[in-house]
Design a protein that fits this description.
The complex is a heterodimer of chains A (382) and B (326).
Chain A lengths: L12 E3 L18 H26 L13 H8 L7 E3 L5 H6 L4 H8 L25 H14 L5 E6 L6 H13 L3 E7 L2 E2 L2 E2 H4 L7 H5 L4 E5 L3 H16 L5 E6 L18 H8 L3 H11 L7 H18 L18 H19 L25
Parallel strand pairs in A: 1-7, 2-3, 3-4, 4-8, 7-8
Antiparallel strand pairs in A: 5-6
Helix pairs in contact in A: 1-2, 1-11, 1-12, 2-9, 4-12, 5-6
Chain B lengths: L1 E3 L1 H15 L3 E5 L15 H5 L4 E3 L4 H14 L2 E5 L10 H8 L2 H4 L9 E6 L14 H5 L5 E3 L4 H13 L4 E6 H4 L4 E3 L12 E4 L4 E5 L3 H16 L3 E5 L2 E3 L3 H11 L2 E8 L4 H13 L8 E5 L10 H4 L3 H13 L1
Parallel strand pairs in B: 2-3, 2-4, 4-5, 5-7, 6-7, 10-11, 10-13, 13-14
Antiparallel strand pairs in B: 1-8, 6-12, 9-11
The chains are: A alpha/beta (382), B alpha/beta (326).
Chain lengths: 382, 326
């Protein structure tokens, strides 16, 4: 009985088009119209600037903990740019640039990180799920959305985001397996930023790539230079076209780097070297895209000031938003409020009125000890 | 009207809802060609095809997680978890997502899904096939937790669950699947979720039960009537959460004595919430402490000890008599 290699033999490709030095592989350069390139570049500047501004807002106590995207703009924008409005985006929690592209107002993103649930409400016709914090748990939702779209015969593609750490979670593997078996129109976009908080990729997986994990589930996986917006765009276009054609899911591994901390509550100097960070700063996606835009004659010097003004204006609007009404939450637990929730809401409303009045009612007079059996017809009777 | 057991009655509910509404899809392990390990989805695969009656890969988290995605898109997935003891592999999906999407998006999204799971003992099954773990779901805000007690209400409640705009965890008592046939009307029938029923009217004592334990409560009530001349009222909860406190309190006020029966372990179980709710609103009407007849706080470890682990008629009788004598 021989021992033989099975067909097909698998292969994982790596795609890079615009390298860290700005060198372009013209043969692979995707055909992106100038207006689309300008839009992408502006979104990248906006994403970068908002991110830096949010760190400052957090340090000033104006928003809470949040997860910066610095360094991952190309991975997000190069992929999300291929979605149409009828397509669905399923984010994790580090997709600020992708969410901006999909039309989330800046102040809504700020609201989420300032602890307002209003920040996770997509607009009425926006086909995006809200930020998802439990790692990888959003991925099965993406599979279900894609299945439903296919079931209805809709021309819809779903794109799901996650990080390298998520690929260790069961939900990632279950989602990939279901997506493969069901052959759904789904693009998995992994932002492999090398670190899951303090745990480096080599402790996360013994696989040579994350892309190859797709092959085990029976669909293509491609590794791209995630700091190269052109490569991400080209790879995603292929994946989205495949999904639209009914040829099933794809996993794109964007090799990128989180230049900042995991969240504003994290201190990355505890687990990684400044040399490593410096090496990745050299590969900054924004630097090489700027050089590319300049070469193309599409660079606009006034853009930076424009996005700064846009962010400032949004921060101003954000700060004018009043404190949320604590009672709203009761309205959205169920379609119809059950009696016990109505009672709890009324109690809270009374407490809030007392708090507002600054003088809570004096406590009702009560007997000093709890009633014993047999006492109930006397003083305890109400 | 046809005489149906619970399996057939549930099957009828699924069949009629699927005929009525193309958005209703079924997902689960072995639900397709095999018709489910208990045959609740029998023949539906043949009638509606594999796109609507989906034999999923064996992974509970993705069954529920994909169900969430389908529900967000507008479908009405009816997910089957083969045994409730396996639902801990998808429990995070319930707590993190199924229960929360409506609130997290302030109503922009909601999750109209049903998750059916066989639960409970009495069928001599292995570990992880016998547990009663309704309390976990009842405790999560945003989930509805339903447990029918017979063929007719199982059918009506499953229809109601499928039509409910919110997620419903639907426990089916394995011991009742083939226990008794009931008259089930041919035309679609529903029942309100969130309402208990008076399964037996009485004046002297209230027995609160649900699922398999309603049968136990009825046997005990009959014995009390015959042997003690006592008429017990039985409240069949049908919905564990949201709890129908109004019906419970009204009965407690009438009888002044309450015994709660459930298969779930006692500590922090549904009985505690039921007792506290009655105490909140009917304390002054009580003639005796509320008694609980439940499983002990011990994990289920195999059916050789099952009889000693499940609440049974003699314990309900003892608790009732103790309460009456207090």
């Amino acid at each position: 009985m021989p021992r033989t290699a099975l067909e097909p033999r698998f292969q994982v490709e790596y795609l890079s088009i615009l390298d860290a030095d700005g060198k372009l592989d013209a043969a692979l350069e995707p055909d992106i119209p100038p207006d689309e390139l300008k839009r992408l570049y502006r979104a990248m500047l906006l994403g970068r600037h908002l991110d830096e501004r949010m760190v400052r807002l957090q340090r000033q106590g104006r928003v809470g903990t949040f997860a910066p995207i610095k360094g991952q703009e190309a991975a997000q924008l190069g992929s999300v740019a291929l979605l149409r409005s009828q397509d669905w985006m399923v984010p994790s929690f580090r997709e600020t640039a992708a969410m901006l592209w999909r039309g989330w107002p800046i102040e809504k993103l700020l609201l989420f990180f300032a602890g307002h649930i209003e920040g996770s409400q997509p607009g009425p016709n926006q086909n995006d799920l809200p930020i998802c914090i439990p790692v990888a748990t959003q991925l099965p939702h993406a599979v279900g959305l894609a299945y439903a779209a296919q079931y209805r015969g809709d021309d819809v593609v779903v794109m799901a985001y996650f990080g390298d750490g998520a690929t260790s979670e069961g939900d990632f593997h279950e989602a990939c397996n279901f997506a493969g078996v069901w052959h759904v129109p789904l693009v998995f976009v992994c932002q492999n930023n090398q670190w899951a908080i303090s745990v480096p990729l080599k402790k996360q997986t013994h696989s040579r790539t994350i892309a190859q994990k797709a092959l085990a589930y029976g669909f293509p996986g491609l590794q791209v230079d995630g700091n190269d917006v052109l490569a991400v765009y080209a790879a995603t276009k292929e994946a989205v076209d495949r999904a639209r054609a009914g040829d099933g899911p794809t996993l794109i591994e964007c090799v990128t780097y989180r230049l900042a901390m995991h969240t504003t509550a994290d201190d990355p100097t505890k687990y990684r070297t400044t040399e490593e960070v410096a090496e990745w700063e050299r590969k900054d996606p924004l630097t090489r895209f700027t050089a590319y835009m300049k070469k193309k004659g599409l660079h606009d010097d006034g853009l930076q000031a424009e996005v700064e003004a846009e962010v400032s204006e949004a921060v101003r609007r954000f700060e004018e938003i009043p404190a949320p009404d604590p009672l709203t939450v009761f309205d959205h637990v169920f379609a119809e409020m059950p009696p016990h929730l109505a009672a709890q809401r009324d109690l809270l409303a009374a407490r809030l009125r007392d708090d507002a009045a600054g003088s809570p009612d004096p406590p009702e007079e009560r007997p000093a000890s709890p009633p014993m059996r047999g006492q109930r017809n006397s003083r305890w009777q109400s | 009207m046809a005489k149906l057991n619970t399996v057939k009655a549930l099957n009828l509910a699924l069949l009629q809802e699927m005929e009525r509404d193309e958005d209703v899809v079924i997902i689960g392990e072995d639900v397709g060609v095999d018709g489910g390990v208990f045959r609740v989805t029998d023949d539906l695969h043949r009638k509606f095809g594999g796109k609507r009656v989906i034999d999923s890969p064996l992974a509970e988290a993705a069954i529920i997680g994909a169900g969430v995605g389908m529900a967000l898109y507008g479908l009405k997935p009816v997910c089957e978890i083969q045994f409730s003891g396996f639902a801990f592999q998808c429990f995070h999906q319930f707590e993190n997502h199924v229960a929360r999407f409506r609130l997290r998006t302030l109503g922009r999204f909601h999750v109209p899904m049903v998750v059916r799971m066989p639960y409970g003992g009495g069928v001599r099954a292995l570990e992880h096939h016998t547990e009663s773990e309704e309390q976990f779901y009842a405790h999560i805000p945003g989930l509805k937790m339903v447990i029918p007690s017979g063929a007719r209400n199982a059918r009506a409640l499953l229809v109601a669950a499928i039509r409910d705009p919110d997620p419903v965890i639907f426990f089916e008592a394995k011991a009742l699947y083939h226990a008794a046939k009931e008259d089930v009307p041919d035309e679609i029938e529903t029942m309100p979720i969130g309402r208990a029923q008076v399964a037996r009217a009485g004046t002297d004592l209230t027995i609160v039960a649900y699922g398999t334990m309603v049968r136990v409560a009825k046997e005990a009530a009959d014995a009390l009537s015959t042997d003690d001349g006592v008429e017990a009222e039985i409240i069949d909860l049908l919905t564990i959460s949201p709890l129908d406190r109004e019906t419970l309190v009204a009965s407690a006020k009438k009888t002044g004595r309450v015994v709660i029966v459930h298969e779930a372990p006692r500590s922090f179980g549904p009985g505690a919430e039921i007792a506290a709710s009655i105490m909140d609103e009917a304390f002054l009407y009580l003639e005796a402490p509320i008694r609980r007849v439940t499983a002990n706080d011990v994990s289920f470890v195999g059916f050789a000890r099952e009889r000693s682990m499940l609440p049974a008629v003699p314990q309900v009788l003892a608790a009732a008599r103790e309460t009456l004598k207090f």
